[in-house]
Design a protein that fits this description.
The complex is a heterodimer. Chain A has eight helices and ten strands. Helix content of chain A is 34%, strand content 26%. By secondary structure, chain A is an alpha/beta fold. In chain A, strands 6-7-8-3-9-10 form a six-stranded mixed beta sheet, sandwiched between helices. In chain A, strands 2-1-4-5 form a four-stranded antiparallel beta sheet. Chain A is globular and about 45 Å long. Chain B is 73% helix and 8% strand. The two termini of chain B are 26 Å apart. The longest helix of chain B is centred in the middle third of the chain and has 43 residues, at 154-196. Chain B has a four-stranded antiparallel beta sheet. Chain B is elongated and about 100 Å long. Chain B is of the alpha+beta class. Classes of the chains: A alpha/beta, B alpha+beta. Chains A and B meet through α3 and α4 of A and α1 and α8 of B.
């Protein structure tokens, strides 16, 4: 029998383990993430938060266990389908991962171009998204010339411009001042309210404190029992 | 596609130095291969021209009747690869000999009887150029009743044919070496460019770009490099060919055959081959790089 919880879960993790050689990064993670949920994954540095996110968009394979994303079993997904799985996600990386030799516009446009969208559509969507994140006047700037907060806003714009079902944010406010962190958090909340599922991995207690959703904690690669709030 | 072409051109512009080196290398390789082709087609022309004058002398037995000779003329004319048949009587042959050897006229005039046989001069079509084909034709003619001997300059033809085959073989070898060298150099340049772009490629993968989307600009880059390199190589060769001067070409032409530049079809083929080489180079370097 399929329960309502199972039915609405967009991500399901069953006894997931991840090892790097002898080091156990994640152990026995079983977790459901629901559609249009705002989930915080808290925990200290090295707890396995980033690893957990990487497993979801297949930047790393699981060592054992299973992950289902929108009904797709990630262990059985053919190599050629991985890019299409990744398009379901908008990922905000801890280190921004912006291409330094490309302009702000090109960095955001790359997601839509990769999906084969026409030039006109790309331009319209990119300009609109840069307006949303307040960067419309920096279209032609290059990432190395921007502040950390500005780079993170570009990273947010790139993550959401393709209108993904799930937004994964890895320490999105980690290296930002309070004001910039607030802007980024507001942006994430705005996309959540538009219907996206948002998963934020952070060690920032103040961010978790302002939580508008569920919180789970990781400690030494394990879900802290009774940590859900 | 327009997006990929734009990206390929941007990449070429951004890696000007590496691309110039590759272009120069491709041009030199194409120049060498084309120079060999130029030599080859002109030697081939020379050979064809020489073949137009290729004759087989068919010497007849003294007791041959006129009727049989007429019959033999038709038989020879009906043979495949025979262009023309001319009868040279022993009297005509002696007169010709006297004409060609004026210093020995007194010797020839003192002969009690004409020692030369009647003969047919058989002109062959230009398609007959291999010694094997000529030998089989000579054997067929030799088997006809009334033929005493057949002469067609076999050793000379064999020697020339062997030389020509060796020349062709050397051309293939040279072509293969240049082909591999071009692939190796172009592939290495593209690999260097890929190293500078590896972070970008990794990010593109993470945001959902397919391998073909990531690879396409590099394939195009290889094709563009190959195409431009091919055109430059042929252009350089044409420049050298023109600089040789009409006078030099005329001297050669008067002696043997008109010296000509590569036909357009060969030039197009060379540029296409060069583009294919560029594409292959990109394919090999990407195949290795994308495994990482």
């Amino acid at each position: 029998m399929v329960t309502t919880t199972e039915k609405s879960a967009i991500i399901r993790m069953f006894h997931v383990h991840k090892r790097y050689n002898t080091k156990q990064a994640l152990a026995d993670i079983t977790l459901d993430i629901h559609k249009n949920e705002f989930l915080f994954i808290g925990g200290p540095s090295g707890a396995g938060k980033s690893t957990l996110l990487k497993l979801l968009y297949l930047a790393e394979p699981v060592s054992s266990g299973q992950i289902l994303v929108d009904g797709m079993n990630l262990s059985r997904i053919p190599r050629g389908r991985i890019p299409f799985l990744r398009r379901k996600f908008g990922v905000i990386f801890q280190d921004y991962k912006l291409i330094p030799t490309r302009t702000v516009y090109e960095n955001v446009a790359i997601v839509l171009e990769a999906c084969g969208q026409s030039r006109g559509v790309v331009e319209k969507k990119v300009r609109n998204m840069l307006r949303v994140v307040g960067m419309e006047d920096r279209l032609k700037a290059y990432p190395p010339g921007l502040s950390g907060g500005e780079q993170q806003r570009i990273a947010v714009a790139r993550a959401v411009v393709g209108d993904p079902d799930i937004i994964l944010a890895d320490e999105p406010t980690g290296s930002l001042d309070d004001e910039s962190a607030h802007v980024i958090f507001e942006l994430l909340a705005r996309f959540y309210l538009r219907g996206a599922t948002v998963v934020v991995a952070t060690h920032d207690r103040s961010l978790i404190g302002s939580a508008i959703g569920r919180v789970v904690h990781l400690r030494e690669g394990r879900l802290d029992s009774g940590s859900e709030s | 596609m327009f997006f990929h072409i734009r990206k390929a051109l941007t990449d070429i512009r951004e890696n000007r130095f590496l691309n110039t080196v590759t272009l120069f290398t491709i041009s030199l390789c194409v120049l060498n291969v084309c120079a060999f082709c130029l030599l080859y087609i002109n030697v081939q022309d020379m050979f064809d021209n020489w073949k137009k004058g290729l004759r087989v002398m068919v010497y007849l037995t003294p007791e041959l009747t006129d009727a049989r000779r007429q019959e033999m003329t038709s038989q020879l004319k009906d043979m495949k690869d025979v262009q023309a048949v001319r009868f040279i009587s022993k009297t005509q042959a002696l007169a010709l000999m006297k004409e060609r050897m004026p210093r020995q006229t007194s010797l020839l005039e003192n002969l009690r009887e004409n020692p030369l046989p009647d003969a047919f001069e058989v002109t062959l079509t230009p398609q007959v150029h291999s010694p094997g084909k000529m030998e089989s034709l000579a054997k067929t003619i030799e088997s006809l009743a009334g033929v005493s001997d057949v002469e067609y300059g076999r050793p000379w033809i064999e020697r020339f044919s062997r030389f020509f085959n060796l020349f062709k073989l050397a051309g293939y070898g040279l072509g293969a070496i240049f082909f591999m060298a071009t692939i190796f150099i172009t592939a290495n340049t593209i690999r260097l460019i890929l190293y500078t772009r590896r972070e970008e490629m990794q990010i593109m993968r993470l945001v959902g770009a397919t391998d073909s989307f990531i690879n396409m600009p590099y394939y195009l880059e290889g094709i563009i490099q190959g195409g431009v390199g091919g055109l430059v190589g042929i252009g350089l060769l044409y420049g050298v060919f023109s600089l040789m001067g009409d006078q030099f070409r005329e001297t050669l032409s008067a002696e043997m055959v008109k010296i000509r530049f590569l036909p357009l079809s060969i030039c197009i083929l060379m540029v296409c081959g060069s583009m294919a080489t560029g594409l292959l180079s990109a394919f090999f370097s990407l195949k290795q790089f994308m495994k990482r």
